[in-house]
Amino acid sequence: MEERKLRVEISDAGKRIDKFLVGAFEGKISRSFIKKLIDAENVLVNGKHTNAHYKVSAEEIVKVTIPEPKVLQLKPENIPLEVVYEDKDLLVVNKAAGISVHPAGMNFTGTLVNALLYHCKDLSGIGGVARPGIVHRLDKETSGLLVVAKNDATHINLSGQFKNRTVKRKYIALVKGVVQLDNGRVDLPIARRKKDITKMGISFVDEKKKNAITNYKVIKRLKDFTMLELLLETGRTHQIRVHTAHMGHPVIGDKLYGSKKGATTHALHAKTLGFFHPATKKFMEFNSDIPREMQELIKRGQL
Fold this sequence. Notes:
single chain, 303 residues, alpha+beta, Structural Genomics Hypothetical 15.5 Kd Protein In mrcA-pckA Intergenic Region, Chain A, Pseudouridine synthase, four-stranded antiparallel beta sheet, 3 domains
């Protein structure tokens, strides 16, 4: 266990406590990790618990307790893993549809994390016990490219790139019906549905809403569906699925948002992923082929 006491200088007065601590730890721990410490009551201001929105004042004493990391209980599993790129800092994998990225609920096996633990002996710990190395996610039924961090410095750097929207993410989707416009931009905020927390929806009034922007381009129009290329400016939960459903063109195979037939998994594939390598600073871009089931749908031309 590590404990640190920090005195707030005048130059830091007025900062949110999470931002203050990121600076105090020189970026070695992330804001999300700090929030977890705050939520676990491991951050005290003048001996009292606080929240992540608290703004510090000059001369206040901030005590931070970083507990010993929990022993990872997840079991490495020899699950097929398509590695597109790997070095000492990170790896890029092409996730198959139907596999969860990380354990959730009571599901602790058969996930991408279990496969990564078998493949790698070194993964970053910032994501917590259940999410080692996981910087970003894809839905279980969505296939495509993911970058995984092998150390905390890489994890922090990549998380910053996602936050600053410098990561290139391009998807291919088959959506229900014929999209009329050749291209467009959907700029609509998203929030979790209060009556069904498994679903997200368009919302302009929910205080927890987050801005979400999806650019789309028609690649091919077929009899009953359209093939779209989608470029994300933001990366919200279920963003593409919510935006296309709002357009009246839900992703084929997406039972949650209105397309109940046509595919056993989502006809949605994260085709392109580009980012600056945290160590070399060079921009790297990766591409992957769309999965066989989507190819078969396109060949048939109709559902």
